[in-house]
Amino acid sequence: MSMEAASERQSAGKDPDKGSRRVISIPASGPQGGWHSMCGTDIAAWCGPATGADPGGITVFAIFFPGQGAQFRGMGADDFGRYPGLTRFACELLGYDLVSRCRDNPDDVLSRTECTQPALFTVNALQTFERERREGRPADYCLGHSVGEYNALLAAGVFDFETGLRLVAKRGELMAAASGGGMSAVMNIPAPRLLDVLREDGVDGVDVAAYNTDTQVVIAGSDSVLRAAHASLRARGIRFAPLRVSAAFHSRHMEPVRSAFESFLEGFTFAEPRTTVISNVTGRPYERGAIPEMLSRQLVEPVRWADSIRYLLSLGPGLDYEEIGGKSLLRMVKSIERTGARDALVKSGV
């Protein structure tokens, strides 16, 4: 890494100012189930009890990082200018002009997995560094959706920017090479019921690739399996949306590239997280020494996002959080919180 890039990264966590910031607080339970926002310039104010949470209880602050699907033309425009050294380093490491690809998206290159993943990682890393420089409040928990988990690990100090970018670039390259098959998001049906429906209609070979909320899941499979699944869902009036991906990620179809990624991981050393990171594989905090194993398993196992959020909501009466680089995860969290509030009301007999 160049001296300029290293200097930019080193200074990212220093000199916090008192810029305004939005904090969203979600009550872990209760009939209101509302979102509340607080704006201010006093860091001490937003380090205090969350709006809507019990002041005497525990408030958890988490940072979320999105995965594929959060990319868009023009992404990173401000971030690249703030960190020119790190940006040039990323372009050199990747072997192409990442800035122009993000700015112009020629030939829809941002939809290609081998470009999407390093682009998202880089832009979200730069936004994380800027957040550290401006605000400085450490999170209690970091978690990311799919490739976003690498940004969570970076934020937690598990590896540096260069290591993270090398890992994500290799991951994207291998996953793109495992062509064939696809993925679809299925809405308004719990995963167990969805799998029952598909079995009843004779559709075999479908994997759940992501448990996003209690009623939104992502399925993965071969092209022929997905065609059969789509026909079944369409006939039953169940909403689904095919995803613009080149393969069946987070499923058995990634097994052919898993060993190559495991070998690649052996060339790196990982620190223990300074901030607790929630694993996509388990929906629980990483166990000591488990990072290579979890990153390997993440390729072939579902993203347990709903379990991850339920774990955070179980820790106390309030959850403060922010999402770096997107808003899709916020909508998922709101859905999960609402389900939890309804369940609590049912159990209480209200």
Descriptive notes:
- With 350 residues, this protein is of the alpha/beta class.
- The protein folds into 2 domains: 3-15 and 62-177 and 252-348, Malonyl-Coenzyme A Acyl Carrier Protein, domain 2, CATH 3.40.366; 182-242, Alpha-Beta Plaits (2-Layer Sandwich), CATH 3.30.70.
- 45% of the residues lie in helices and 15% in strands.
- The protein has 14 helices and 10 strands.
- It has helices spanning 3-11, 43-46, 77-82, 84-94, 98-104, 113-134, 148-155, 161-177, 191-200, 223-236, 255-265, 291-300, 305-313, 328-348; strands at residues 21-27, 36-40, 59-65, 141-144, 182-187, 207-211, 216-221, 240-242, 276-277, 318-323.
- Strands 2-1-10-3-4-9 form a 6-stranded mixed β-sheet. The protein has a 4-stranded antiparallel β-sheet with strand order 6-7-5-8.
- Strand 1 (21-27) and strand 2 form a beta hairpin.
- Helix 1 crosses helix 4 (84-94), helix 8 runs antiparallel to helix 11 and helix 13 crosses helix 14.
- It is globular and about 60 Å long.
- Residues 14-56 and 344-350 have low confidence and may be disordered.
